[in-house]
Amino acid sequence: MTEMMKAVLLHGFGGPEVLRYEDAPRPTPASGEVLVRVHAASLNPPDLYLRDGYRALPPEWQPDPVFPLILGTDVSGVVAAVGDSVSGLGVGDEVYAMVRFPEDLMKGSSAYAEYVGIPASEVALKPAGIDHVQAAGAPMSLLTAWQFLVDLGHDAANPFQPFRHEPIALNGKTVLVNGAGGGVGHLAVQVAKWKGARVIAVASGKHEALLRELGADVFIDYTKTAAETVVDDVDLVVDAVGGADMERWLTVLKDGGALYLVNPLGFSGHDEAARRHITVSSTQVRSSGAQLAEAGRLLENGTIRVIVDSTYPLADASAAHERASRGNVQGKIVLVAA
User: Fold this and answer.
1) Fewer Cβ within 10 Å of end Cβ, the chain: N or C?
2) Domain boundaries, the chain
3) φ, ψ for residue 128 (rounded to 5)?
4) Whether the Cβ atoms of residue 168 and residue 236 lie closer than 8 Å to each other
5) What are phi and psi of 194, to 5 degrees?
6) DSSP secondary structure letter of residue 328
7) pLDDT tens, 270-291?
8) Shortest CA distance to 167 belongs to which of 192, 187, 186, 189?
9) Tell me, what's the pLDDT at 56?
10) Does domain 157-281 correspond to CATH entry 3.40.50.720?
11) Inter-residue contact 309 to 16 (CB < 8 Å)
12) What is the rounded distance in angstroms from the CA atom of residue 197 to the CA atom of residue 238?
């Protein structure tokens, strides 16, 4: 008889209301996997895009998954079972991970559930001193900041450009982070500061006190001041927002600087960037237990903090998605399993 669990199931694309908390078959760990009893899972933009059917993409890129599917990549929990060929992890270990990303980008990585099977290579021990809610908020956002700013950590083909993304040295440099109050942004501010940069944080005014506390040297409230009109001679811009007019960041960069685009779709300033020898680069974040273990030491010693905007019971995932759709999120939204 199949063992069951509770999970948030998606039976068809749509708004937050299509997420249903129902019974689902409990997975068993395959060879090389661990089964994790989920204590918390966080929301990330790909969760919202997939729930909606990636409607912003061209039709030929849109997913055609087998329903029902389970959203979610980021988890923190406890190892409940270990598959064959797994060493270094055991039942009872507290762990965190970003699950099968981007491999399961278009079909869901199944983290919005009481249990999830995860390749052991993607799992790291949860940093001591932080709880499961904070740990669940870290993986995708922290790995994004880490792979953009510290170490790419893999040689997989880059879907956004023909060349490998290469982080630049940040010690003594000036770094501007756009979208500094969000999941990736608030961690990018802290990672850049840890690497020795002077950091300019751009976000709405509600985030100012927090971002200064997290190490921002300069804060710009974009609702009152267009950052590109008051800043220049920047070494690196990290744009964690995307959307229209990303080209404006070229005006704040010194010749020979760099522009890192977390979501590069729609950028059209390559000619000007080439003329001024500005490196425009992006990359697709990828799961890595080794990098979570390395970055986790900074969470453990308090050098980096994960800020939680709000928490919701797993059963109320639809309300959490509704919160995310309203925007102006400070840090991460986290689902807490019963």
Assistant:
1) N
2) 4-139+304-336, 157-281
3) -65, 150
4) yes
5) -60, -35
6) -
7) 999 999 999 999 999 999 999 9
8) 192
9) 80
10) yes
11) no
12) 13
Strand-strand pairing, 74-82 and 115-119: unpaired
Looking from the CA of 146 toward its CB, the CA atoms found within 13 Å total 24
Domains 4-139+304-336 and 157-281 are alike in CATH topology: no
Provide the 3-class DSSP secondary structure of residue 25: strand
| Six-digit token string for 298 | 């900074």
Two tokens at 295?
A: 């970055």
Domain 4-139+304-336 has CATH 3.90.180.10: yes
- Given the structure tokens 């949860």, which residue do they identify? 126
Along the chain (338 residues), what's the average pLDDT of each consecutive run of 10 residues? 94 96 97 98 96 86 90 98 96 98 95 98 97 98 98 96 97 98 98 98 98 98 97 98 95 98 95 98 98 98 97 98 95 94
Would you mind telling me the total number of residues written for the chain in this entry?
A: 338
The two structure tokens encoding residue 261: 């685009």
Residues with Cβ within 8 Å of residue 48, at least 6 apart in sequence: 321, 324, 325
Q: What type of residue is 137?
A: G
Query: Exposed, middle or buried, 25 (CB in 10 Å: 0-12/13-18/19+)?
Result: exposed
Contact assessment for residue 111 and residue 74, using Cβ atoms and an 8 Å cutoff: yes
